[in-house]
Amino acid sequence: MSVIKSVALALRYALREMRGGLSGFYVFIACIALGVAAIGGVNSVAQSVGDGIAAQGRSILAGDMSFALQQRQVTQAEKHFLDKQGQLSESATMRSMARKADGSDQSLVEVKAVDQSYPLYGDLKTTPDLAQDARFAPQDGIYGALVSQLFLDRMGMNIGDDILLGTARFQLRAVIDEEPDLLSDGFSFAPRFMISLDALSGAGLIQPGSLVTHIYKIALPDDAGDSALTQIRADAAKDFPDAGWNIRSRNNAAPSLTANIERFSQFLTLVGLTALIVGGVGVANAVRAYLDSKRAVIAMFKSLGAPARFAVLVYLIQITLIALIGIVIGLGLAMLIPFAAMAALDGYLPVTGMSGVYPWSLFLAAVFGLITVWAFASIPLGRARSVAPTELLRENGVAHHGRAPWIYFILAFALMALLAGLALYVAYDRRIAVVFITATIAAFIILRLVAHLIQYIARKAPRTRSTALRLAIGNIYRPNALTSSVVLSLGLGLTLMVALALVDGNLRQQVASNIPAQAPDFFFVDIQNAEIDGFQKLVGGIAPNGKLTAAPMLRGRVIELNGTNVRKMDIPAAGGWVLRGDRGITFSANMPDNATLNEGEWWPTDYSGEPLVSFAAQEAQDLGLKIGDTITVNVLGRNITAKIANVRQVQWETLAMNFVMVFSPNTFAGAPVTWLSTLTLDNGDKNLTADVLRQVTQTYPTITSVGVKDAVEVANTLISQLSTAIRAAASIALAASVLVLGGALAAGNRARIYDAVVLKTLGATRGTLIKAYVLEYMLLGLATAVFALLAGGLAGWYVIAQIMRLKAEFLPDVAGMTVFIALILTIGFGLAGTWRVLGQKPASILREL
Asked: What H or E segment, with its residue span, contains residue 612?
């Protein structure tokens, strides 16, 4: 018989046999649908956001290109270069303190000063809707300001009120409803305060060394394509190699958001893949139980002369068709997820028109689902092939234990490798994907070993006098025991939940308790050289018992490492943050009080040789830097190269005054600097805290005061939102675990029926059987919970201690909840299926034995 005829005949038999319905495959379908929906939905959302950002790049950036400079404006030559590219718009951003005229209250604000051309693209929408001149132009000598609703709520003010910023008075003219380039500006934890560039100069906020970002945006001619963007970037690098500006284009209008979305979507994709793999256990259980019920049919196929591969082909087609039902359901849900996500994110992401159907994301999810089904169905199909017809016809009530041919094991391994390769191919961060895949493989191996260990311990356990407990222990290691199915199905989902719960709990604890206990109460920024002595005297008088520290600060961007441009280097992910954007840097003759040298020596107080730098030890290790290496930093438009003289230990978690790079004082001799200062109060007095903030703001209106409490509250809010999303995603894997657990217990009920009938015939009571089943499920649940706590605890510790480099603590409430969930699920599902078993009449079952 030709291959085509064999497939056609097998398809006909498969469809004919499926007329009886999908009984026994509902868990199979649900697992596949859940995993496919998760993968397809997450990738669709990520693609929709990315497409929305790309489609609205001009509006999001408020220009075709953006050139940002720290602490300095463009030179005449640089401005001429920008002017000739197209229409130019200038803006500036910085943090400052806005305060009521009577001095009764003040608030940190994100100041944004714009010119008459802003925005080049998009619309600045306000309530009330004002013309450009009416928004900012001075009226009776008072400049106008646009603010966010959050600012009004925080300060208890209304439109029309006056407010002080720096040395100038402003009138609140309107509330900002929509700011076109808000997304491209990145994260901020203070409300917006928008004024004109003239007003910013009049407020006296820009002083030498002030932490201000000057941004120049260009609207190119309408016919300028992407090649023009590339050419302008290349010309800027060629003509002004030491400019130190950060160049962005409409194609990467919001790089931080895009990168974060891609990272988060990868995490959610891996969670969805976890759900699929956990569901694969359900697939294997369902296929094994289904083929066990079809032994008589398979026997007839073989007895009538059909080759063994024909029976495999019939049921492979059936399984594939059933899998396609689950995949279609999952794809239907995945197509709805972007619309639901956009509705939920409305107001959070100022990007519109993103919802739609994304074929590549859906195709990817379908491929993941189909490969998973084939991988986990291979070995059960191989076991069905290997059994002789006489054995199949002779057995009844006892499952088959034949071994599949090695080719099926090889096929399953190849399909799992294909699944891993596909996960690596679509991964944003392949390092994370490799860790995940390795951890998943290790988890399955360990879970299988744990199941065997549990059975070994049960087999070697001393004989107990309790009949119920003896039956429970015997059920754990008996042939066709539920041990492997329960441990495999529930173990992976619980492990993931424990790991995420520990990471979440440790982060919350670190932010809510540890950080406030160690952190200073205030950061003071933009203190001028002429103000530092008076500032220290003022604060010392208000809080004589407080600890006040100060250090000069500039902003700089790392340009080269050992003479090689960082843009051309393959930078490790762990230390990459040091090279992204501008970093705060300082110089000091003496080593900081809160630092310890790991290697090298500090320079003499009167050092005057080549520029030297002290680098943070962990970050140096991440970047592969050592003593004697050189670092080139662009500061105020100048490239300065310094040699690493030592590396020091930095405790970032204290939120104290820490810098990645501390230079020798001669490096920046004569440079315009501002001072950064921290204040730590010893009693947490709220009145004293308010007094410090009020007097500093009134005496030095250009100094920015940042309360650590405000930053901690923002961090707590972000962690809460992120952990909610992560837990919701992880619940998908746990839901798959629960489905598989239910399916495994249901599949085991067939053998339980015969056991219960025989035991009842021999005099066992229903109460004894119920007690035995409860004890069995409880022992399995506890064993699985112990594994989940150990494995999840190890994974959580690795993330907290090795990746986030924070202090990791074990949380007893997480342990208790894990044990509780494991017991509820195993005992609950187990007893739910057992009631039907215990209600079977012995006569009808005994006739079939």
From this structure: strand 612-616
CA atoms within a 13 Å half-sphere pointing along the CA-CB vector of 449? 7
Contacts of 567 (CB under 8 A, 6+ apart): none
Q: What is the pLDDT of residues 287-326, one digit of tens each?
A: 877 777 777 777 777 777 777 778 788 888 888 998 899 9
Tokens of 116: 């008459």
Give the chain's length. 849
**What is the identity of the amino acid at 142?**
I
pLDDT in tens, 428-473: 667 777 877 787 788 788 888 888 898 999 888 888 888 888 888 8
Name every residue whose Cβ is closer than 8 Å to that of residue 459 and which is 6 or more positions away in sequence: 477
* DSSP string covering 534-586: HHHHHHHHH-TTSEEEEEEEEEEEEEEETTEEGGGS---TTTGGGGSS-EEEE
**pTM of the predicted model as reported, rounded to 2 decimal places:** 0.65
Q: Where are the beta strands (DSSP E) in 210-365?
A: 213-219, 246-249
Q: pLDDT for 778-836, tens place per residue?
A: 888 888 888 888 888 888 887 777 766 667 777 788 778 877 877 787 777 777 766 66
**Is residue 680 predicted with pLDDT exceeding 80?**
yes
Contacts of 90 (CB under 8 A, 6+ apart): 114, 115, 117, 197, 214, 215, 216, 217
Place 248 in a pLDDT band, splitting at 50, 70 and 90: confident
Q: Which amino acid is at 401?
A: H
SS3 assignment, position 531:
coil
Owner of token pair 């429970």:
472
Residue whose tokens read 């972000």: 718
Pairing of strands 630-635, 638-649: antiparallel
Q: Measured between alpha carbons, how far is 493 from 835 in angstroms, rounded to an integer? A: 26
Q: 712 CB contacts (<8 Å, ≥6 apart)?
A: 511, 512, 515, 516, 519
Q: What is the pLDDT of residue 398?
A: 46
